[in-house]
Design goal:
mainly alpha
């Protein structure tokens, strides 16, 4: 789970993606809230608890989610990224099925 401390330490790539070039406590507090909400929302959509700060498709989706969140248009995110959500979700469903098969 993303804490305020880990959110703060991972804020720079998010700020770069959102083209936020200034620093102030209100902006950073809003970003931390949105980053924490993004993790919860994406974990639910993707069906897995993931690290969104490792390079890859999951990080790209997280940054896209943050862009939609920052611009107050989350209602458009699912439609725009449905294919990516399904690809990532499928990847983790297959991995979970393989893990279950290995245990039997």
């Amino acid at each position: 789970m993303l804490t305020a401390t880990t959110a703060r330490s991972n804020m720079d790539p998010v700020k770069r993606h959102l083209n936020i070039t200034w620093s102030d406590t209100d902006t950073e507090a809003k970003l931390i809230d949105q980053m924490r909400d993004a993790e919860v929302a994406l974990n639910h959509k993707l069906g897995a608890e993931l690290d969104y700060f490792v390079p890859g498709q999951e990080r790209r989706l997280y940054l896209a989610y943050m862009l939609y969140s920052w611009n107050d248009c989350l209602n458009e995110f699912d439609g725009a990224y449905r294919a990516e959500i399904m690809q990532i979700r499928h990847k983790y469903e297959v991995a979970a099925m393989e893990d279950n098969t290995d245990e039997e």
